Amino acid sequence: MSYDDPFDYMPKGGGNGARILDRVEFSVQSEKIFLTHYDKATKVTTKSRLKSGDFEAVFDMPNIELGWRIFPPGNPPSYAMAKWGQPTPSQPNKEWKAAQRVVVLISGEEEARQLVNESATFVPSLKAVMFAYKAAPEAKAGKLPVVKIKGDWLEAKAGEKTFYRPDFVITGWVDRPAALAEPNMVGISTSEPAENEDIPFEVPPKANGAVRQMETEF
Questions:
Q1: Counting CB atoms within 10 angstroms of each CB, which of 29, 78, 137, 139 has the fewest?
Q2: What is the pLDDT of residues 36-82, one digit of tens each?
Q3: What is the DSSP letter of 52?
Q4: Taking the CA of residue 135 as centre, how many other CA atoms within 13 Å lie in the half-sphere pointing to its CB?
Q5: Rounded to whole angstroms, what are the CA distances from 23 to 113, 118, 126, 160?
Q6: Do the Cβ atoms of 171 and 77 come closer than 8 Å?
Q7: C-alpha angle with apex 89: 27 to 102, nearest 5 degrees?
Q8: Burial class (CB in 10 A: 0-12, 13-18, 19+), 34
Q9: CA atoms within 13 A on the CB side of 172
Q10: What SS3 class is residue 79?
């Protein structure tokens, strides 16, 4: 079975006072998963590690967003996005990077997190979940997928550089948890604060026809 590719919009070769979602981040350089926590009292963001084998999360696939993000130095990021299946917004300008955003609930946690991706390396992992979700009868019944990482991360080459991406697999289906109750927080206020945030992106050089991509540094 085949589908139109929702990532075709990608280049080839703010908040309104609502709650801020913490993040789950995947480093394609180090094969590591980080969980962020923003302390509103101190306005400091901290990170902790989560082992790949311990990652298990419910993905809010009906509300995944595709579009663009800009993260100016000293300012919180801004988004121009639309839900999967709706027309993807035009790129505001060349400073905006292709991005995807989905809210997830990690096993053992009570609060949802946002997963925001700008890495071309990570896209096949996210796409695999999207298409598996779309093909499943459970999705049509309103269930949400439980996603884990299968074994080792997969190697991905970009010119002379080597990156890695998680091998996501759907291992089960659940009713929508209360933490992911609709209307979803996505698109309302998932912008992370600017204070105490590094700008963790660099652009690997284009080589041997490799796709220019944004990769997250930790």
A1: 137
A2: 998 888 888 899 999 999 999 999 999 999 999 998 887 788 899 99
A3: G
A4: 11
A5: 5, 14, 16, 30
A6: no
A7: 35
A8: middle
A9: 9
A10: strand
Cβ density class 203-213: b for 16+ within 10 Å, e for less: ebeeeeebeeb
Q: Which is nearest to 113 in space by CA: 50, 201, 42, 32?
A: 50
Q: Which two tokens stand for residue 78?
A: 């801004």
What region does 22 belong to: left with phi over 0, alpha with psi -120 to 50, or beta? Answer: beta
Q: Which two tokens stand for residue 174?
A: 């659940």
pTM above 0.90?
Answer: no
Tens of pLDDT, residue by residue over 84-122, are 989 999 999 999 999 999 999 999 999 999 999 999 999
Q: What share of the chain is helix, strand, coil (3-state, %, to 5)?
A: 10, 35, 50
The answer, yes or no, to whether the previous bond of 183 is cis (omega within 30 of 0) is yes
3-state secondary structure of 133: helix
Residue type, 36: T
Q: Which residue matches tokens 């790949």?
A: 52
In sequence order, what are the residues at sequence separation of 6 or more whose Cβ sits closer than 8 angstroms to the Cβ of residue 116? Answer: 23, 69, 77, 99, 100, 101, 190
Distances (CA, A) of 193 to 19, 112, 130, 197, 209: 11, 17, 28, 7, 36
Type of residue found at 2: S
**Residue 128: in which H helix or E strand, if any?**
helix 123-135
